[in-house]
Amino acid sequence: MWITWSGAADCSSRQRRDSAHPLAQPIVEDWPESRARRQCFGYDLLRSAGVPEDLVARSDKLLRSYDLFQRPVQLTGFLEEGTTLRLADVDWQVLYCPGHAADLICFYEPGSQVLIGNDHLLAHISSNAIVSAPPLGESARRRPLIDYWQSLRRVADMDIALTLTGHGEAVSDASGLIEQRFAFHQRRLARLLDLLTGGDQSVWQLAQGLLPRMGMNDTFLAVSEVIGHLDVLEGKGRVTAETDDRGVWRYAAA
User: Residues 76, 2: contact at Cβ < 8 Å?
Assistant: First the structure.
């Protein structure tokens, strides 16, 4: 997430400021190394998940096409955990809430107890914890669903009267909705374990069992969804993972 705001109330002296979390800088400014890293990561991830080659090619083309819908923006500042942002004469606290994206931030105003929640919490759909390439300087990919759950628990413990979401309706009961989201994820964990009772499977096989109605353009999101939940199960010692001779990950119930 990046944000543009005015540096002065007087329109004649207004200056544009573009700021984001530091992890977003290579993406927002479109560093060539970062773009190449993301594209290679997505391609390799789909192949390791066992996705058929025709769908890998289709998904890779779709992911690359997203670059056509954005233009580079030079950042003039950073929004990190613990800093404040002055908007409409009110100070908003910057909250770092990774999960849906590694660089996701929210804004909280204690006086009104309003949270500008980005896509961290949506009223009618569970935010997909997208598996992404490691940030520049890191070698191992992050576990986005585990990060997302930690961020959700943090928000659930806060005094929030209203959450303004990135899209869709506002949320008036953040804690109640978060409880529903955790119940939803628990059902998905149970379903994955059930699918693994018949033997080891690839991520793609599990995605077809978990999300039988996914469209052809949903391949990457479906793979992300399954890998995120497998990360949780692996962390709990409930599943094990091995790589076969084709480089495809195979998961089995522990």
Answer: no
- Secondary structure element (H or E) that encloses residue 65, with its range: helix 53-65
Longest Cα separation, the chain: 68
- Answer whether residue 7 is part of any domain: no
Structural domains counted in the chain: 1
Q: Are 156 and 175 in contact (CB under 8 A)?
A: yes
- Answer yes or no: is pLDDT of 15 > 70: no
Domain of 125, CATH number, reads 3.60.15.10
Residue range(s) defining the domain that contains residue 204: 14-253
Q: What is the pLDDT of residue 12?
A: 35
Confidence check: pLDDT of 250 > 50: yes
The answer to whether residue 8 sits within a structural domain is: no
Going from the C-alpha of 184 to that of each of 127, 151, 179, 210, 246, the distances in angstroms are 12, 16, 9, 13, 33
**pLDDT of 3:** 53
Asked whether residue 1 is domain-assigned, the answer is no
For residue 161, is pLDDT > 90?
yes
Alpha helical stretches, state H, 94-235: 144-156, 174-195, 203-210, 219-235
- Indicate yes or no: pTM above 0.70: yes
The amino acid present at 44, given as its one-letter code, is: D
Contact between 243 and 250 under an 8 Å Cβ cutoff? The reply is: yes
Indicate whether 136 belongs to any domain. yes
